[in-house]
Write a structure and sequence with these properties.
Number of domains: 2
CATH superfamily of the largest domain: PK beta-barrel domain-like
CATH class of the largest domain: Mainly Beta
Order of helices and strands: EEEEEEEHEEHEHEEHEEE
Strand order of the largest sheet: 1-10-9-13-12-11-15
Shape: globular
CATH architecture of the largest domain: Beta Barrel
Helix content: 10-25%
Distance between the termini: 28 Å
Number of helices: 4
Length: 266
């Protein structure tokens, strides 16, 4: 069965909603441009906003500890770095992340949302030459819609793909085919990627992407299905190129949970 690229997403601010792209230019050794470019560090993170560095996700406000963030949508407002922060269709803030005044306004909004989880002053920090992804190397996350369908059947209700915050969504093929890709290369449009490992999931998947309520446990169903709480895979770009929804995805055959020795899964 043929595979196609269904969607491309990036997350300008770590922990907030996705920006869906009509195309992306992937560079060698890079992630999706501007993915996780900004992050909201809590007061105990010990990060210098003027000289930020990559830190593990526990340094930032994120959905695993603050699921209510999911109720706050982010959308780009025109050109540049101007964004609107929206809840239930109402614009709470329009801010230019490229200006000090805009960043302070965002920090105040997020601090109010976070309450005690802010652990002091919230700082909106910008990655300069790196991204605030969970993994320090610049990787691309990939999820297959066939596997999502399998998860939904196990849970007994449709599971929103947004819970998994993937960069690339792949349509077609068999459930869990992506686990067979580990250690191998795939082609997406003009780009070539090497799949490195499955993505171990955390409590962030509890967060309803609309309401911000921690309303669904998908970790135990994932463990029952795959032997571990994994969904999707990380890949590195080994040959850059342009990609767009509808592009063919050329990947090794697989799926239906074959033997997973060598993947780090039990």
């Amino acid at each position: 069965m043929s595979l196609t690229l269904s969607a491309i997403a990036r997350y300008p601010i770590k922990g907030l909603s996705a920006e869906v792209l009509s195309r992306a230019d992937l560079g060698f050794g890079c992630g999706v441009p501007d993915d996780r470019r900004w992050a909201m560090a809590h007061g105990a993170a010990g990060i210098d906003p003027d000289a930020p560095r990559w830190l593990p996700k526990r340094a930032f406000l994120a959905l695993d500890s603050l699921p209510s963030l999911a109720s706050l949508s982010l959308r780009r407002a025109g050109e540049g770095e101007v964004f609107e922060f929206v809840r239930e269709g109402r614009v709470l803030l329009r801010a230019d992340l490229g200006s000090g005044e805009g960043r302070k306004a965002v920090e105040a909004l997020i601090a109010d949302q976070a309450g005690g989880a802010a652990r002091g002053r919230v700082s909106l920090v910008e990655g300069r030459g790196f991204a605030f992804c969970d993994a320090e190397p610049p990787l691309v996350s990939i999820a297959c819609l066939a596997s999502l369908h399998d998860v939904s059947e196990a849970v007994g209700r449709p599971v929103e793909v947004e819970r998994f915050r993937a960069n690339l969504l792949v349509a077609g093929g068999l459930p869990w085919q992506e686990l067979d890709w580990v250690g191998q290369e795939i082609h997406v449009g003009e780009a070539r990627l090497r799949v490195l490992e499955p993505i171990l999931r955390c409590a962030a998947t509890r967060a309803n992407p609309r309401s911000g309520e921690a309303d669904l446990d998908v970790l135990r169903p994932l463990i029952r299905l795959t032997g571990d709480a994994v969904f999707g895979v990380y890949a590195e770009v080994v040959a850059g190129g342009s990609i767009a929804p509808g592009d063919p995805v050329l990947a090794p055959p697989g799926g239906r949970l074959p033997a997973r020795h060598g993947l780090g899964l039990t």
